[in-house]
């Protein structure tokens, strides 16, 4: 939000009367009010006291973190919290309740009416990282025996203003999904048209047990803004909207980035020192063990290094560049596996592509390192030969490892982002030292 607009909004929220705010509220986005609250947390209660319940509900739903949502709700006066919760969607309340301890959760649920409480408790039974945990039970279902007129009358009288209206879902008496119909088809059809005549029966559904990453990929594939969630008997349970999927995509991307760096998927910039320490130290210990393995390779060539000390300066370049190349390949492969872009039909082609990239990169970087090594060694061309072939071989190994490691982990049902980096780094370090010092030992008489 631009500074002028921000200052005007802040002035209105802090010094304006309830009537003045009410007049302007329809033209103010809840996210802008939340920005003012974030910038001026000391005046949160004052701001919320002047806002209507539905606006407060929208502001809470704009907050990203469930703990922050609950903290914001607690800033509302106790006698108004029930009204705010009544304006919130059941899935948002379930997300908040799922992060609370038992006492806080019971206090929250006690403020809901009977229907909302039942819906929230039902949603809490689902794994939060599945379609069931993502869905909302607020959707429009039409009985299969209805006509267009019946449907229009129902929409006029029984539909809440916050209920998604992109699609209407047609179900039978048992709640089994029969198809989907859009509003345009209803408006364009005669009143006596049976709803099944304009229903699209080829509806794509999501099982409530599907993992959230699979759900996100399904939305991406079909470019839908909303999809129905069903049980194993095709009974309609709820719907997932595109805004929930955008959050999933952001969370999955953040998780992959964190895991590849050896950090917990839950860590954020505002995590406490203790949380960050617990998140990072396990993988640092694992990396220490792999570093010991690389050191063991170097120890086997102590004799060579002691005779040509200048080798120690060059070998770190070989392993470092190999690690960089491996990380590049690994990043592309992990992302491809996450997006389901790699399958048995194209896996071999991608492998040879990575192999060729490793060869070409190894040749280019190898030549540059060889020239630098010759200069560093006072003009001895054998330093260049050793550096070139060690770099070429290690770059090839790096790209092969960057492909094979995540693919194998995927086959073993282990998240490739979780452990790939450690294995690839181990390969590039150990093989880099082995190739460079092995070749140096082979040509030792020419290097001395």
UniProtKB/TrEMBL annotation:
GO CC terms in record: plasma membrane
Domain CBS residues, every copy: 198-255
Main location: membrane
MF annotations from Gene Ontology: magnesium ion transmembrane transporter activity; metal ion binding
Function recorded in the entry: Acts as a magnesium transporter.
Family statement drawn from the similarity comment of this UniProt entry: Belongs to the SLC41A transporter family.
Subunit structure: Homodimer.
Lineage, opening ranks: Bacteria, Bacillati, Bacillota, Erysipelotrichia, Erysipelotrichales
Pfam families per record: CBS, MgtE, MgtE_N
Keyword annotations from UniProtKB, A to Z: CBS domain, Cell membrane, Magnesium, Membrane, Metal-binding, Transmembrane, Transmembrane helix, Transport
Gene3D superfamilies for this protein: CBS-domain, MgtE N-terminal domain-like, SLC41 divalent cation transporters, integral membrane domain
Membrane topology: Multi-pass membrane protein
Source organism superkingdom: Bacteria
Ranges annotated as spanning the membrane: 281-301, 313-334, 355-376, 382-409, 421-444
Subcellular location: Cell membrane; Membrane
Name recorded for this polypeptide: Magnesium transporter MgtE
């Amino acid at each position: 939000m631009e500074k002028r607009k921000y200052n005007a909004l802040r002035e209105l929220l802090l010094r304006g009367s309830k009537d003045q705010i009410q007049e302007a509220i329809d033209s103010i986005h809840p996210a802008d009010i939340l920005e003012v609250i974030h910038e001026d947390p000391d005046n949160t209660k004052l701001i919320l006291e002047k806002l209507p319940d539905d606006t407060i509900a929208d502001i809470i739903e704009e907050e990203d973190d469930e703990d922050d949502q609950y903290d914001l709700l607690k800033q509302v006066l106790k006698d108004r919290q029930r009204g705010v919760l009544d304006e919130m969607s059941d899935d948002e309340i379930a997300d908040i309740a799922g992060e609370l301890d038992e006492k806080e959760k019971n206090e929250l649920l006690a403020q809901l009416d009977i229907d909302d409480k039942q819906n929230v408790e039902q949603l809490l039974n689902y794994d939060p990282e599945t379609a069931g945990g993502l869905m909302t039970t607020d959707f429009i279902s039409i009985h299969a025996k209805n006509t267009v007129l019946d449907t229009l009358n129902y929409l006029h009288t029984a539909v809440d203003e916050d209920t998604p209206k992109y699609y209407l879902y047609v179900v039978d008496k048992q709640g089994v999904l029969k198809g989907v119909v859009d509003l345009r088809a209803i408006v364009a059809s005669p009143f006596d048209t049976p709803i099944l005549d304009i229903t699209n029966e080829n509806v794509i559904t999501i099982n409530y047990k599907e993992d959230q990453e699979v759900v996100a990929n399904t939305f991406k594939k079909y470019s839908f803004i909303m999809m129905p969630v069903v049980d194993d008997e095709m009974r309609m349970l709820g719907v997932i909207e595109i805004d929930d999927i955008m959050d999933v995509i952001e969370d999955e991307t953040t998780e992959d980035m964190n895991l590849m760096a050896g950090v917990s998927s839950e860590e954020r910039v505002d995590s406490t020192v203790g949380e960050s320490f617990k998140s990072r130290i396990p993988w640092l210990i694992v990396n220490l063990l792999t570093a010991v393995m690389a050191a063991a390779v170097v120890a086997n060539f102590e004799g060579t290094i002691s005779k040509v000390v200048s080798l120690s300066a060059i070998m770190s370049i070989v392993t470092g560049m190999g690690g960089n190349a491996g990380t590049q390949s690994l990043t592309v492969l992990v992302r491809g596996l996450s997006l389901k872009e790699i399958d048995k039909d194209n896996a071999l082609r991608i492998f040879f592509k990575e192999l060729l990239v490793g060869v070409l990169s190894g040749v280019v970087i190898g030549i540059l390192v060889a020239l630098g090594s010759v200069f560093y060694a006072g003009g001895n061309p054998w330093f260049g030969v050793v550096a070139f072939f060690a770099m070429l071989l290690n770059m090839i190994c790096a790209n092969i490892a960057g492909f094979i490691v995540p693919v194998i982990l995927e086959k073993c049902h282990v998240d490739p982002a979780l452990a790939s980096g450690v294995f690839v780094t181990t390969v590039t370090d150990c093989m880099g030292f082995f190739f460079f010092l092995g070749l140096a030992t082979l040509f030792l008489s020419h290097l001395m």
